[in-house]
Amino acid sequence: MKTNIFAILMLAEGIAGHAIKRHSQNSDAACKITGKAVYLITNDAENAVVALPINDDGTLSQGTVTPSGGKGTNAIDGSTMKPAQPDALLSQGALTIAGNYVFAVNAGSNTVSMLSISENDPTELKLVGKPATVPAEFPNTVAASAKNNLVCVGSTGAVAGISCASFSKRGLDAMDSLRPIDLGQSTPPVGPTNTVSHTFFSEDESALFTMVKGDPAANKTGFLSTLHVEENTSCKGNRRASAAAQDARFAPQNTAVLFGSQVIPGTGNIFATDASFGAAVLSVDMKTGQAAIVGKGTIDDQKATCWAAFSPATGSVFVTDVAVPRIVEMSANDASIISQIDLTATGDPGFIDLKASGNFLYALSPGNGTTEAAIVVMDISGGQGSGKPIQRFCLDGVAGANAQGIAILD
Fold it and tell me: Are 402 and 367 in contact (CB under 8 A)?
């Protein structure tokens, strides 16, 4: 196991809203692959989508803030019975991208929004139509399929479950009937346990997966939901995709608090974090929805390992902990630990949503009310075990302790 400690570098060069090291025009920056823009939601009373341009060296610059047309809100932290901060929505995937569209949940108004991305400027967003009403309470995670023109939302309030809708350039259609998940929750929900965690599509977009956390203290088991995508033909011969009316649910053995997950390309496997121990690789039978652990990694001293991002550049998965300021790199094959990057010197209490794009990794820290929100940018161009921070981009004045989600336009 390798450990990268960069406190001396951080203190020497300073990081509050600045790049630790920018590449010159004559460096190898032009050879590195970057995305176009990073997106997150503020999840404030007036929810908005923040769009930040990605520079040629992978660092971020000031961007735009576009209202989503809905409201954000907070879950209740079960340990304090106060509004949850950070991790206000108890989820991964509070927004996502399909094609040139961003989809974002509005947990405070029980809606989902669709915004278009300008072809000329990836930070120029425009609300498409009106936010669609979700037939549930406290929507906290969203997935979208460009192949099927389908968006699905997971909700985790007193009325919890999964609902989907078609979308087009005109906006979102009405959400379909709820596939209920009986959590016995309230609105807002009390968590983080016993809540919906993350909804996402399979690699070929033929199925929707949803992770649901268990509650070990109440002897309640979490599970993986699998919902197949069906193709229907109208009387006029038009084809339209929809999600099946019934999902399959399976609780993988030796898991308890399933959270953020990633489909591992070319394998059919899912890498899933579990806040009770670390992470596991699951092999999923697409016909039955049954899942079995093929690899399990325990992270020492972890508090709540809950978010994951697969990097095609390294072939590994990076995970974060809301209460520990580090990023752990793990094998996509068996969840063994490859490296740990100590980010203590950033001053961030921990990290939540993260996303890899090209040769870079972007991790969100909403702060804790006293520490401002920020995104730490990591250079992972050297392959596995090479991750090093190059920027801490401060979100002060743009987004705060309620910030959620990370999506990237490649």
Answer: no
